[in-house]
Design goal:
single chain, seven-stranded mixed β-sheet, alpha+beta, eight-stranded mixed β-sheet, globular
Length: 487
């Protein structure tokens, strides 16, 4: 039991600060509305062992952290970092923190646009749902049609999206609209265990389980026509969202390096605030190996979402004869990563290792890392809602660059654990409700559907309203689910 008082200082209606006390090297800063701020304090003061405020404070206590330990509007407890947590570390004195990335390395979203309208989809909706369900491997331990050897896995871990493109699952033009162009440098497969590679032999091109999904969505509302035009979307257009990550390989990398970084934390006399918050100095051999392995996980996820894009195009071609070339990538961005980026701190541009845990890169206008078509408006921020509500496209801004190291929310954020959700909801009831709302559902697991019931999540509209009103990541478009494929 700690003696923390959990006092928050209000900066403005959507910004709250945890003052620097005790072992904190920087303050904590929360970008939430007043109701959420109160909920977070009540949870922490209520004695919850696992709460987001403690985790923000713990991260603020790590050596080399810059400016503040951040919590975004979808914040909730995670392993080590809170989900919705962001922290940047100096390259020379900072840390590589496994808990700042998590187990599902580069879990992220790829958004595809089609030339279809809502009315055109209705004619073949159930056929499309069936074909997607049959074509997209999903579920716990699901295996795909790509069966690889160790050598081939090594190529996937270094080549990223291009690995799948070379095997016929997409086009070279896709990479132009993928974060890091679908491949991050510095990935060395020698730093990934054989066990991790073996677990991935048949999992590239698979959706997985948990909160992963494929959704066919309607662009229900446009808020910023200029940005929407840059992204190539319009009202009543049909888009497709693919949410998944590095599958078993990323999870195994996380498990492997928790042990290695625990040893490193002790070796370098680093604080261990929580068992998943173990770390190593960035420039240490242990830190470099973790970052290299983590980059392999990033590339694996890019390869996975690329393969799933190819399968999605195949299903649409099969079901309605839609030319695969007409299904184009809007953007692909991860929300569990640690990457070196240049940001302005105290008037100087510095290279920092930015950890985003359940947080999406939200670069503002002018950043060269963005596709040329998006540089005038800022990069797309892809926000997943729940099966029964809505998803959103937001955009990065000058404020996100100055306040959150170019970071934005990634979803609604859970309001209850998966275990609690399974005890409260029945998968069959969730399915009936969704069908009643006009959403075609295809699932491999009713317990999995219960875990991801809309009632297990925060109100995504409220979360998005917070970041929109604050000016961090303005809303561009609202997306309504029409077909859901779940593991």
């Amino acid at each position: 039991m700690n003696n923390r008082e959990y006092e928050l200082e209000k900066i403005d209606d959507y910004t709250w600060e945890i003052p620097k006390t005790d072992n904190m090297r920087v303050p904590g800063r929360l970008f939430v509305d007043e109701e959420t701020a109160k909920e977070l304090v009540d949870e922490a003061r209520g004695g919850a062992d696992w709460n987001a405020l403690d985790q923000v404070i713990n991260v603020a206590s790590l050596p080399g952290i810059v400016k503040a330990s951040l919590g975004l509007a979808d914040i909730h407890p995670g392993y080590g970092f809170p989900i919705g947590g962001v922290a940047a570390f100096k390259k020379d004195t900072g840390l590589a923190v496994a808990g700042g990335v998590g187990f599902d390395i580069n879990c992220g979203v790829r958004l595809l646009r089609t030339p279809l309208t809502t009315d055109e989809l209705k004619k073949s909706k159930e056929k499309i749902a069936d074909d997607l369900y049959e074509t997209i491997p999903a579920g716990l331990g699901s295996e795909g049609e790509i069966n690889l050897s160790v050598d081939e896995i090594n190529h996937a871990l270094t080549e990223g999206a291009q690995f799948s493109i070379d095997r016929g699952y997409g086009f070279a033009s896709d990479r132009e609209f993928v974060e890091e162009n679908g491949r991050i440098e510095g990935a060395n497969p020698d730093h990934v265990s054989r066990r991790a590679k073996q677990r991935q032999f048949k999992q590239i091109g698979t959706l997985g389980s948990g909160n992963h999904y494929l959704e066919v969505q309607q662009v229900e509302e446009i808020f910023e026509p200029e940005a929407a035009n840059a992204y190539g979307i319009s009202e009543n257009q049909i888009v497709i969202s693919i949410h998944t990550g590095s599958r078993a390989l990323g999870h195994q990398i996380g498990q492997d390096y928790l042990k290695k970084l625990e040893e490193a934390s002790k070796k370098y006399d680093l604080p261990i605030m929580e068992k998943e918050l173990v770390s190593a100095p960035i420039d240490s051999p242990e830190g470099q190996k973790y970052l290299s392995a983590m980059r392999c996980g990033i590339n694996c996820a890019f390869a996975n979402r690329q393969a799933l894009s190819g399968l999605t195009r195949r299903a649409l071609d099969s079901s309605i004869g839609l030319n695969p070339r007409e299904v184009e990538t809007i953007y692909d961005v991860g929300h569990n990563t640690a990457k070196f980026e240049r940001h302005e701190v105290e008037g100087d541009r510095k290279e920092l290792l930015v950890h985003r845990k359940g947080s999406t890169r939200a670069f503002g206008p002018g950043r060269e890392e963005l596709p040329r078509e998006y540089r005038d408006v800022g990069g797309p921020v892809l926000v997943g809602g729940t099966m029964g509500t809505s998803s959103y496209i937001l955009r990065g801004s000058e404020k996100s660059m100055s306040e959150t190291f170019g970071s934005g929310i990634h979803g609604a954020g859970r309001s209850m654990s998966r275990k609690k959700a399974k005890s409260k909801f029945w998968g069959e009831d969730v399915e009936k409700r969704l069908i009643g709302d006009g959403i075609s559902v295809r699932t491999h697991s009713y317990p999995g559907l219960a875990e991801e019931a809309p009632g297990a999540y925060k109100d995504v509209d409220r979360v998005v309203s917070t970041v929109h009103r604050s000016g961090l990541t303005p809303a561009v478009a609202k997306l309504k689910p029409l077909i859901v494929v779940k593991g």
